[in-house]
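lol forgot to send this yesterday, sorry. struct tokens for the thing we talked abt
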């Protein structure tokens, strides 16, 4: 559940984006790539843990400029969705949250 404000939260997430956009593939092609790291911090104990997530998406090729632009947009959106899904569903986040909350005073 989301807290009403940061002061009343048990944990706070700080997101650091390392790569958001296209990355060079093999040959002349490019693919969408998103890499970010999230610092999960327990405000009561001041402990923090880092969780990383990556997402990639390979777009379909296109010959027309309009289609290329649309495919690049879809490719980057797909990579972002993939990275967020990997972060939220990942066992690393679950383990880090559990470790930060286990010794937290109530």
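and heres what i got for the seq, position by position
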């Amino acid at each position: 559940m989301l807290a009403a404000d940061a002061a009343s939260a048990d944990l706070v997430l700080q997101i650091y984006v390392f790569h958001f956009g296209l990355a060079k593939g093999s040959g002349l092609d490019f693919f969408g790539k998103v890499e970010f790291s999230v610092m999960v911090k327990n405000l009561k104990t001041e402990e923090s843990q880092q969780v990383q997530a990556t997402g990639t998406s390979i777009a379909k090729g296109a010959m027309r400029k309009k289609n290329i632009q649309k495919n690049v947009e879809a490719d980057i959106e797909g990579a972002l969705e993939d990275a967020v899904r990997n972060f939220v569903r990942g066992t690393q986040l679950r383990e880090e949250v559990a470790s930060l909350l286990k010794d937290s005073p109530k």
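Residues 33 and 56 are 5 Å apart (CA to CA). anyway ping me if u want another try
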